[in-house]
Amino acid sequence: MIIRIDQASPDPVYQQIRDQIVASIAHGELLPADRLPSVRTLASDLGVNLHTVNKAYAVLRDEGHLVMRGRSGAVIADFRHAATPERIAANAAKLEESLRQLALEHRAQGGTEQTFLEAAQTQAKRVFTEQSPDGAKRNVRVLGLDEEGRPLTKKPASKPSTLNTTPAAKGAHS
């Protein structure tokens, strides 16, 4: 799974992470019971603050996409088996409200019902007919890339000018 962080995007980084994990679930790249990297690992791989990843995981958990298992980490939830009637109803309401808001914005910009329905149908076809990758990736790793495809790395903290004098460091030079 590749997560791309666009620092120029108006969307917060946690939302970008959340959206891309949901897309990976929808495309079959992530399957129920797949473990995601720890918050620290993903934050390090993406070069972002660990609280940003924690927030993305919390949103995904609250939406029913993830199950948090303490020290075992985040696991993709099996929505078909774990969805409660309340969650299903909440998701349906969220879908309806999101579509309503998109339709209002489209109409406010001079769009017609027909062009809205055509655009919605085109996107639905894209999502529901895209080929899923062959086989699931059991060892879920994340490669963080920027908008130009370069690996993301966390900027190293400024290092003090003193030498490391820990016993391990001394032993390494002996």
The profile of the biggest β sheet is: 2 strands, parallel
Strand fraction equals 5-15%
Number of strands: 4
The average pLDDT score comes to: 80
Give the CA-CA distance, first to last residue.
43 Å
Tally of helical runs: 7
How do the helices and strands follow one another from N- to C-terminus? EHHHEEHHHEH
Strand order of the largest sheet: 1-4
Question: Could you explain how this protein is built, in words?
Answer:
There is one protein chain. This protein is about 50% helix and about 10% strand. By secondary structure, it is mainly alpha-helical. Strands 1-4 form a two-stranded parallel ribbon. It is globular and about 50 Å long. About 15% of the residues are buried.
Concise description?
This protein has 174 residues and is mainly alpha-helical. It is built from seven helices and four strands; from the N terminus they run βαααββαααβα.
